[in-house]
Every structure is written in C-alpha cells, then in structure tokens.
Amino acid sequence: MESISDYSLVEAYLDAVKMNLDKDFLSMLWSEIEDRNLNLCVIDKD
Q1: What is the pLDDT of residues 2-34, one digit of tens each?
Q2: For residue 22, what are the CA distances in angstroms to 2, 27, 34?
Q3: φ, ψ of residue 21 in degrees (nearest 5)
Q4: Residue 32 near residue 9 (C-beta atoms within 8 A)
C-alpha cells in the first residue's frame, strides 16, 4: 500500500469531519495523525 502524505492525511481527516463520518473512523485517522507527531495549525481562509 502506498504511503499517504501528511498533508493528504490531514485533508482526509478534515473531509471526514465535514461529512460527519463514523466516529471510529475519525479516531483511527486521528491516531495516525498523532503517531506522525504532526504540528497542525488551522488557517481560516475567509
């Protein structure tokens, strides 16, 4: 399986939140983000 980039992983998480997907799926994605120890900052583009 191809490795997903950090950026794509975070994008996938945010999309999953917007689509109100299953909480188990969200926590699986989130723990992957935490495992990579990413420093996330949210930029509001209004």
Answers
A1: 677 888 888 988 999 999 989 998 898 888 888
A2: 24, 9, 19
A3: -75, 170
A4: yes
